[in-house]
Structure to design on (762 residues):
């Protein structure tokens, strides 16, 4: 835990800044970026960093830091918008709880809980705009929510009725990626395409502390940097990769790695929804402005088991869990809203009701999901017809009872 | 080698729930536990044996196959690795060059592919490239196959890729006794071995002789690369390996009861090299052969078996060699896997078709 608390920058209460370390473009960073983002309203896109020039040769020089004025990036939020961030977190936690109980009752085969990571996911997810594209791992139910993906579609994967039931292009949200780290390269390539198309958007890719060890992730860092792609690497360091603590993946803080690849890395308190929103807005603005990738390490905690198949008592202490309970992202935001007088009793009560109804409906829709048509397992193997698959499909269909198809 | 008596005592303690009121003696253990005991014996017998993989230490592996090894053998020999499969196999190669005998765990079949280059281009070829100077006694354990209702990438059968690669040995155990013996034999092999574990059979129990240490021992019941007849029969031959051996045995049982047919079942055990003598001997008697696996059919183990049996026992065959396999689709979502996986009905249909010729 050393280093984690020291470096955590809390947006609430106001006034904190975040430090960006970048070794590679130290000299370029010497300009006046701090001044550029001092303005509290309307921060310029990509404030704080000059445009990347991939042809300027490898960076060098001393590590440099630049201050990003995080509060400026959320100064525009209205009271309603602040409350809505809390609402998002309440609803996705409720979805998570419902899914966990559905799994226990045999309605889902498995569930990967996001409990504890709501702020990181809602904060970053709400920073995204319609032109942006998100690449999740398998735990980003909160980001899916922010991208308008039907929660029932997320449950369907874990129920085993399909392998990914939403339209990635329609939602700006790629399918879940279970092979750890693979999506980092997809995001890099997608962002290369966005740059070539002069898209006004950027890509963001979600991955874990464990995934940061995979070759794919490290290759993605290198490529994204060399081609200065509009991509935000959003690492949720939830302290664990199943049973292995984050220190088994990296001896340096994960955000420091970016410097070695030649782009800026920042660490943010992943349990502070405003800090996550602000830092992601800043990172996206940097990327959209053609200044290349940014790595955001959101320091958070996986409060539940790895999945419903896991037993975390075998490898971590209840004291650690208790310590992170004290930083529960929902409690933090509640406290913040209450202090500002934004948590009127009536509104709070309505939200509780809304969450109940939401959970109730989600459960009903989940349990009502029929098993897929058996012959559908032969659908979409590839675009063009494959004779072998077609023959297997007809032979299989002939064996089915009339009721089964 | 830890003495059999000690293991037997500990086995009894480990499955204590089974002992109520029963006399002392051999106790059935699960296939996972049999692997665990085999690993322990191998580690006790040779200080160069190292176990490495994701979550194999403190957690004891997601299937608990390495449970207790960290405590017994320490962090230098039971390594919770960073999350990187290419590195698990790549560093195992380096360790082997340095004289160690690494046993790598790949957490699930679908996660072996990041290590594919290290396996097929490096592990498989270094002995050849070095004109025999380098030996790589690396065992790669992979829980494989479906049937556990899992999410994507957790139910695959990747054996054909490895069988297709010269320089690798590929084996699959199907029951606790074989698991216990074969894992020790694999670790003792001076060639790299892909060791496939039928994950949906991890919880199947049988009595295991704890003193069955391996090939070179007089106690060894079979060599690592020998296939065996697991049910004798006269009318047709079923061939399976890993998880489908149990399915074939069930099919033979049903066929005997319902149709009065006597089906012989052969457990291939070794997929590369193939030991087809027992299969050929069986086919020469029965004249009919059905090969069963979960992997898709296209360019598969069953394709190889069919080709060789056709080449070597053509005049004994009363019918073409038939196959019951997974379909040539990606592994489907869990709610459809029962349709995808070979089951008793599909096997018996194939037997019927064979008799229809
Ligand atoms: C390539 C690959 N190897 C192994 C696994 C098995 N596995 C699933 S999740 C996981 C840990 C991932 O940890 P992290 O990246 O920190 O993400 P978190 O689960 O904490 O969200 C592992 C080892 C996998 N899914 N993909
Ligand atoms: Mg993690």
């Amino acid at each position: 835990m050393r280093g984690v608390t020291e470096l955590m920058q809390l947006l609430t209460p106001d006034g904190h800044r975040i430090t960006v370390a970048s070794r590679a473009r130290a000299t370029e960073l010497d300009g006046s970026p701090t001044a550029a983002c001092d303005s509290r309203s309307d921060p310029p896109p990509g404030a704080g960093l000059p445009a990347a020039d991939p042809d300027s040769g490898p960076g060098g020089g001393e590590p440099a830091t630049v201050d990003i004025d995080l509060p400026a990036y959320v100064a525009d939020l209205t009271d309603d918008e602040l409350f809505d961030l809390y609402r998002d977190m309440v609803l996705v936690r409720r979805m998570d709880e419902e899914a966990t109980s559905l799994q226990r009752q045999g309605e889902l085969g498995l569930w990967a809980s996001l409990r504890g990571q709501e702020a990181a996911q809602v904060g970053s997810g709400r920073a995204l705009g319609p032109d942006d594209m998100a690449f999740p791992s398998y735990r980003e139910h909160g980001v899916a929510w922010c991208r308008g993906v039907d929660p029932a579609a997320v449950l369907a994967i874990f129920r085993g009725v399909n392998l990914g039931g939403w339209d990635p292009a329609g939602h700006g949200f790629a399918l879940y990626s279970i092979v750890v780290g693979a999506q980092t390269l997809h995001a890099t390539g997608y962002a290369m395409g966005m740059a070539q198309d002069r898209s006004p958007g950027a890509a963001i890719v979600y991955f874990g502390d464990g995934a940061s060890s995979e070759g794919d992730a490290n290759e993605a860092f290198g490529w994204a940097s060399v081609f200065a792609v509009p991509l935000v690497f959003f690492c949720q360091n939830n302290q664990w990769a199943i049973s292995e603590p984050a220190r088994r993946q990296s001896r340096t803080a994960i955000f420091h790695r970016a410097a070695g690849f030649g782009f800026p890395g920042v660490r943010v308190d992943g349990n502070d929804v405003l800090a996550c929103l602000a830092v992601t807005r800043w990172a996206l603005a940097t990327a959209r402005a053609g200044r290349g990738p940014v790595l955001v390490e959101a320091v958070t905690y996986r409060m539940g088991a790895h999945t419903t198949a896991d037993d975390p008592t075998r490898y971590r202490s209840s004291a650690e869990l208790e310590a992170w309970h004290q930083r529960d992202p929902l409690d933090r935001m509640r406290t913040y809203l209450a202090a500002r007088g934004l948590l009127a009793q009536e509104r709070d009560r309505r939200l509780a009701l809304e969450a109940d109804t939401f959970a109730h409906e989600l459960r009903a829709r989940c349990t009502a999901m029929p098993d897929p048509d058996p012959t559908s397992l032969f659908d979409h193997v590839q675009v063009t017809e494959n004779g072998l698959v077609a023959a297997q499909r007809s032979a299989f269909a002939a064996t089915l009872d009339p009721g089964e198809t | 080698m830890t003495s059999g008596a000690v293991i037997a005592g500990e086995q009894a303690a480990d499955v204590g729930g089974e002992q109520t009121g029963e006399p002392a003696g051999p106790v059935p253990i699960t296939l996972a536990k049999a692997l665990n005991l085999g690993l322990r014996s191998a580690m006790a017998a040779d200080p160069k044996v190292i176990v490495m993989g994701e979550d194999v230490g403190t957690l004891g592996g997601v299937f608990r196959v390495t449970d207790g090894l960290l405590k017994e053998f320490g962090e230098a020999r039971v390594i919770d690795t960073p999350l990187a499969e290419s590195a698990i196999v790549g560093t195992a190669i380096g360790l082997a060059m340095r004289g160690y005998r690494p046993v790598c765990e790949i957490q699930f079949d679908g996660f072996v592919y990041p290590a594919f280059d290290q396996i097929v281009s490096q592990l498989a070829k270094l002995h050849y490239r070095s004109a025999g100077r380098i030996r790589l006694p690396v065992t790669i354990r992979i829980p494989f196959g479906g049937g556990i209702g899992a999410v994507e990438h957790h139910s695959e059968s990747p054996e054909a890729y490895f069988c297709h690669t010269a320089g690798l040995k590929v084996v699959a155990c199907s029951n606790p006794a074989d698991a216990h013996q074969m894992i020790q034999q694999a670790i003792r092999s001076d060639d790299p071995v892909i060791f496939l574990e039928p994950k949906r059979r991890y919880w199947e129990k049988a009595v295991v002789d704890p003193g069955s240490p391996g090939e070179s021992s007089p106690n060894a019941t079979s060599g690592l690369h020998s296939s065996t007849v697991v049910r004798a029969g006269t009318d047709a031959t079923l061939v399976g390996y890993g998880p489908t051996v149990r399915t074939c045995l069930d099919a033979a049982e049903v066929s005997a009861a319902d149709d009065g047919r006597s089906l012989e079942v052969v457990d291939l055990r070794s997929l590369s090299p193939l030991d087809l003598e027992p299969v050929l001997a069986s086919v020469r008697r029965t004249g009919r052969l059905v090969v069963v696996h979960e992997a898709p059919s296209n360019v598969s183990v069953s394709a190889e078996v069919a080709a060789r049996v056709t080449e070597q026992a053509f005049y004994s065959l009363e019918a073409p060699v038939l196959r019951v396999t997974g379909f040539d689709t990606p592994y489907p979502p869990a709610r459809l896997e029962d349709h995808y996986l070979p089951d008793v009905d599909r096997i018996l249909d194939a037997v019927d078709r064979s008799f229809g010729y």
In short: Confidence is low (pLDDT under 50) at residues 1-22 of chain B. The two ends of chain B are 53 Å apart (CA to CA).
